[in-house]
Design a protein that fits this description.
Length: 253
């Protein structure tokens, strides 16, 4: 009898898992999430002054917070106070999967997450999201980090058509962003507009990421002001809302 009960419970669990499904999240006219990584506070404030005409907002994913200058901390607070999100991007900006595999998950949390969150807490910043450095994630790291954050951002490549791209929000706490930096092989206005058009027409929320906004791109990990302006203008002209990573977390059921 006991064995039958155990088997019945296992069957019920299997059916529950197999029947569970994350419902796609749709919003009228679609939406845009722009995330910018690392610690380019001067450039972030510059691009904010250019894009505020579109009523934009972004998630600024901050790394190496312990070594930032007082002026950078002031800039970070300014961005936060005007409505942007401050997101975690690692205290040391390490490859999470490799670091956890080498030193253990407990050591990864101790070195990469705890001091970062302690710093943000001391600055009275409510950090609810985390963006993986280098997009390095696994199911194991996801499960551990969701104890600390409401939503996690990984990265997606640009080889897919709009319909098959992973850079749209589907209601999961693990989201994938498409790179905007100029050095990406897919980086061109036509491709980005195609993705934005699909998001707009299908009422989806598209997620992007970049690094250092700059007027004229001169190296790797830089996104031009022109690219960001083009995306924000398209969103503004087509009545697409801007969201942060934390906004997406609030939509998860």
């Amino acid at each position: 009898m006991k064995r039958i009960i155990i088997i019945s419970i296992l069957i019920l669990l299997i059916l529950t898992i197999s029947c569970s499904h994350i419902e796609d999240v749709t919003v009228p006219n679609g939406g845009v999430v722009i995330t910018l990584d690392d610690h380019h506070f001067i450039n972030w404030c510059q691009v904010d002054s250019l894009l505020k005409k579109y009523n934009w907002k972004a998630s600024f994913c901050v790394s190496l917070i312990g070594s930032r200058s007082d002026l950078d901390i002031q800039r970070m607070h300014k961005l936060y106070e005007i409505g942007h999100e401050i997101s975690g991007h690692g205290y040391m900006h390490v490859h999470s999967v490799l670091y956890a595999a080498t030193y253990g998950m407990e050591k990864y949390i101790e070195d990469e997450i705890t001091p970062m969150m302690d710093y943000f807490d001391a600055e009275s910043l409510n950090v609810k999201s985390f963006s993986y450095p280098y997009g390095s994630r696994s199911n194991f790291t996801d499960n551990e980090l969701l104890d600390y954050f409401d939503i996690l951002r990984a990265t997606s490549d640009g080889v897919r058509t709009a319909e098959k791209s992973k850079c749209y929000f589907d209601g999961s706490p693990i989201v994938y962003a498409l790179g905007l930096d100029d050095y990406f092989y897919h980086s061109c206005e036509e491709y980005f507009i195609n993705l934005l058009t699909y998001a707009h027409e299908e009422d989806k929320i598209i997620i992007f990421y970049g690094h250092k906004p700059i007027e004229t791109v001169t190296g790797k990990y830089q996104v031009s002001f022109q690219t960001l302006d083009m995306i924000c203008k398209y969103a503004y002209d087509n009545n697409m809302n801007f969201y942060t990573l934390s906004d997406l977390a609030d939509m998860i059921e």
